[in-house]
Structure formats: C-alpha cells, structure tokens
Specification:
alpha+beta, 377 residues, 4-stranded antiparallel beta sheet
C-alpha cells in the first residue's frame, strides 16, 4: 500500500513572511541574490523577509577537545565554525572568514533591513559583495578579496552603508575574537538556537509561511511560493501577471510575462487565477513534466489546502482500513492453524474398527491392562 500526502502553502493573512538560510560562501543561491533585490522592493511591505546565516556549533563537533583541528575553521575559542570553502586550510578563504562575514551580514540586516522587512541596502550589500569580493565567475573566485578590509570597505561605499556602524555592531554583539571569559556572541548564539529549533540541514533553505522549499531553488520558484501564501484577494498586483513566469525579474520590472513555465489559462482563457498555490510535499516542490512548478488553482473559500476536518476523516479512514485488513488476516491465520491442529490430532487418534467401534474399547484401555498383560508378545 502506497500513500502520498501533500500540503499547500498556508495563506492566513495579507502578509507573507519568508526566511532564507544560507552562508556567504554558498554559491547555489548567488543568482537568487542577484535578482531578488528589485523583486523584494516591488513586494514592498506586503512581505517580510528574514535572512539567517548557517554556522556550526564548535562544541557540538568536539572542537574543544581538538582545537588544532578547528583552528582555521572557528572563531570565539572554537565556538562558531564553518567549513573551509576551498578545502585548503593553509590558504584562501578559511571557515573563520566565513563566520566573520556571516556576522557582518547579520549586522547589516539588523541596521538596514530588520525595521521594514525589505532590506534594500541589505540586498545592495550582498550584490556588491558577490560582485567585488566573491566573484564566482572568475576561475580563482577572487579568494584574496573575500576577507580583504579594502574590498569590504568598497562594498560599504557602493551600498551606501555606514561601515563604522556595522563594525561597531559586530564588536558590541561579542565579536569574533577569542575571549578568555568565553562569553560568546549574542547574534551567532541566536542563529545556532534557531537552526537547531527548525532542524535546518540543507542549504540554501527558504521558508515561506513556515513551509520549507527544498529541491530546485530559483527566483521564480520563490516568487510563486510567496504569491501562493497570500489570503485570497490580497495578493499584490505583481502576482497576477508574473506567477508561473520563467523570466521573473523581467516580468516584475515590466508587469508582462514573455516566457511562462506553465499553462496560464483559466475558465475564461485569460491569465492565471490569483489564488493559485504551489503544491509542496515532503520531497520538496512538485514538478511537472517540463520541470516547472506544479501549480493548482483554488476557488474555494479556503485556498490553503485540505481542511482539518477532511484531514482527520482521511486519517480515520486509513486507520479503519488497516484495522480491517489486520482483523481479516488474524481470522484467516487462526482458521489455518485450527485446520493444522485437527490434521495432527487425526494422525494420532486410534483407528476405528470395521463396525465403527474402537478396538479393545477406549483408546486408553491398554493402560489399565498394563498390570496383567505383557506388552511384549
């Protein structure tokens, strides 16, 4: 028996909250970071974004017991760690460099994004950093610029960010230097706690209304998921023309989709229903034969998926089926066992005489004769 269950993106209100778990050296989401700034601005305050930085707990991986093994991977007395991006601990970018840049991005968001949930300058910082200090289109990835103070100061200037404010934020939160008191860093401690609570194990991971998007990762997939998270009738104006559009950045800029990833015909043959939803199961976003996101339109009052009543009835029905099958199996097994027992007893019962009587009377009569008759003839 095979059972498949799917859930739609929850859409409780007119604002969607979405979180992204990544880290500065991760390259899968680089294209997303390049495109998303303008899209985030178009959504305005109808969405709220929260970025997270993924780091390792040095204590959990026993860096305290083997400090030499984690020397270039961790900061704060081997408390916060990251993998070495280039695999060379003696040169290039170290894990400790990644942790420092993670803390820097947390401070950029807290000062230039947390208040409005959009973070225009935060996106500017990410874009400029990737272009100037971590240029993935170069063969050598410009590794020497990743941790260069000159390059980071240049990024501050291009993104119109007060670098002194960010550096002060980093120090005030606990910094990344070793500390004899072992106090640690408040911001990095919070990232570790959230990471553990949400069981984040895959990077990058995007959560839309607390539902994780896994599998394919692109701006169009994230855009469709966010639009599906609004309650019916509250979607921003950019959702209707751009849901299901492959060239999502161009569509958001011009409000016209030139290349779709799915059929966009409704009952009237014009456009997609604004209440369409991205279907997500435990394996990630469901794809159709063309690799596009599988979208389903819903005109019911509750477009967030199956109701709790239907879900409960379905579970009860499944349980009843299993109980019924189990009972029938038990009954058949018991019947077969009874038949086997009867067969075994029949083999050991004394044969009846010609007249239907048992020879010598009762089958147990020979026991009473043991005293007078010899068993050996």
């Amino acid at each position: 028996m095979k059972i498949e269950m799917t859930w739609n993106i929850p859409n409780p209100d007119n604002r969607v909250e979405y979180d992204l778990w990544t880290l500065p050296s991760e390259i899968i989401s680089k294209e997303f970071h390049e495109e998303w700034r303008d899209i985030a601005i178009k959504f305005d305050k109808s969405v709220r974004f929260t970025p997270h930085q993924y780091i390792f707990d040095g204590k959990a991986v026993n860096c305290d017991d083997s400090p030499d093994r984690c020397e270039t991977l961790c900061t704060n007395n081997n408390r916060y760690c990251a993998n070495d991006p280039d695999g060379d601990r003696t040169a290039g970018i170290s894990g400790a460099d990644v942790v420092r840049e993670s803390l820097r991005r947390i401070c950029v968001w807290r000062n230039f994004g947390e208040l409005d949930g959009i973070g225009e300058k935060y996106w500017d910082y990410i874009r400029e950093f990737n272009y100037r200090c971590f240029a993935i289109y170069d063969d050598d990835y410009r590794l020497e610029f990743f941790f260069s103070p000159e390059c980071i100061n240049d990024v501050y200037e291009k993104a119109n960010i007060d670098g002194k404010m960010i550096e002060k934020c980093m120090v005030d939160s606990g910094g990344t230097d070793d500390d004899a008191n072992g106090i640690g860093n408040n911001f990095l401690d919070k990232e570790l706690a959230d990471q553990k609570e949400l069981a984040i194990v895959v990077l990058p991971t995007m959560d839309v209304n607390t539902i994780a998007l896994r599998g394919g990762f692109s701006s169009s997939i994230v855009f469709d998921a966010i639009c599906a998270g609004f309650s019916e009738g509250s979607q921003p104006v950019i959702c209707k023309p751009c849901v299901g559009c492959e060239e999502i950045a161009d569509c958001v800029a011009n409000a016209v989709c030139t290349q779709t990833t799915m059929p966009k015909n409704n009952d009237n043959g014009s456009g997609t229903e604004s209440g369409s939803a991205v279907v997500i199961d435990n394996k990630g976003i469901t794809n159709n034969d063309y690799g596009a996101v599988d979208m389903t339109a819903s005109k019911s009052e509750n477009s967030s998926g199956i109701s709790s009543t239907t879900f409960g009835i379905t579970l009860l029905f499944i349980c009843a089926v299993f109980v019924g099958v189990g009972y029938l199996h038990w009954k058949k097994t018991r019947s077969d066992m009874n038949e086997q027992v009867r067969g075994i007893l029949a083999e050991y019962m004394p044969l009846e005489g010609i007249d239907g009587n048992v020879p010598n009377g009762s089958p147990m009569d020979f026991t009473s004769q043991a005293g007078s008759n010899s068993l050996i003839s």
